[in-house]
UniProtKB/TrEMBL annotation:
Pfam families referenced in this protein's UniProt entry, alphabetically: DUF2218 (PF09981)
Name of the protein in its database record: 2,4-dihydroxyhept-2-ene-1,7-dioic acid aldolase
Amino acid sequence: MPTSQARVHTAEASRYLQQLCRHWSHKFPVESTPQHGKVPFGEDRVCTFEAEPDALVMRIATPDPVGLTRLENVVADHLARFAFRESLGDITWSRAA
């Protein structure tokens, strides 16, 4: 299954992880702690979050490459909105098969 990962440097990783999970918990059965989050966007589409002391690591998995690009954009856009007080720079995703 195609996967993608982005590492965003921030001291507020746990806060953003919790905001993203809380936001999507209204639509999806989200699992989250201050250090780990999992958002199942569908039966075969999932995004996980890991809060590290200096970064938020986001991983997406979906069988559809087009859907992977779309989900990368959705997650990055939401993170940028929640982090409006902080300049996170460009969010760069790395792909793996």
